Amino acid sequence: MSKPVVLLYEPIHEKALALLKEKAEVRMAQSLDPAWLQQAVADVDGIIIRANGKVPRELMAAAPRLKVVGRHGVGVEAIDRLAAAELGIAVVNTPYSNDESVAEQCMGMIVALARRLVEADRAIRAGDWDARYRLIGVEVQGKTLGLVGFGKIGQRLAAIGHFAFDMPILYHDIVDYAEQEAWLGARRVPLVDLLRQSDFVSLHTPLVPETKGLINEAALRSMKRSAYLINSARGPVVDQAALIRALKEGWIAGAGLDVYDPEPLPKDSPLLSMNNVVLSPHMAAHTDEALLRMAMVVTDVLAVIEGRPPEFLVPAPR
Predict the structure, then answer these.
(1) Between 3.40.50.300, 3.40.50.720, 3.40.630.10, 2.10.10.90, what CATH number should domain 99-279 receive?
(2) Which of 140, 199, 202, 285 is most enclosed, with most CB atoms within 10 A?
(3) Residue 249 bears catalytic tag
(4) Known active-site residue 132
(5) Is residue 86 among the annotated active site residues?
(6) Rounded CA gap, 217 and 235, in Å?
(7) pLDDT tens-digit readout, 97-114
């Protein structure tokens, strides 16, 4: 009996790949172009998607054997979940797999921005020792941390800020986290109050219609001129054109960005030449530990293919 076929959109951690290869024939996508994918899925039993590419209804309909779509990571906005539900295709992901990695990178960006570390690195490499007199930063200790979205990543960042830097914590979320409030000394506030009061605003919301463009010109103008914005969520949560204006004109002090709209960040983006921005290429979750945890979506993909219940089944949209 032939092995089931699983199509990988992008490479995954070698340990998880070895496990998958024991049970399935593994194919690597040669392109994420919809036309190429359309002709590649005719005999595919499972698909594993990372940050790039999409799994729309048309692709699922072209894959009569498809039983499961696995998301290497958390966000499933690139998968048409309604179509999957209608076609009887399971969607699985790896919640909690990258909480620590993303939270650590966000705090790293906060410290880097506050202490102007990237600017200092550039200066000393250019032989500018006297930059030590110009690059005067601020301490993170005691500054207010505002979290837009208070799920597992937001809560982990709150814990780092609260326990390591004695930061007062504000959060905005549709859910009231009373237990976490008590543990972290956090307060749930309206978004406008969070933006006005926070010294560092970090975004941790999913990309849904309600959050697209959430941080727009009005939101940015309501922030302190000394405040910093951190985005490791999704690029379209921020109006990028408005953010560029905010950074150029000094509405806010700076930003730490791991995600963009569009991605990859265009080579002519004004963000690339700004000194008050710390940039990374959508890699906040890319530690060896988190990449392995995310790649272990293979266990649920195999479970569905083999007729067993998966551990992390993503519910169908209502």
Answers:
(1) 3.40.50.720
(2) 202
(3) no
(4) no
(5) no
(6) 15
(7) 999 999 999 999 999 999
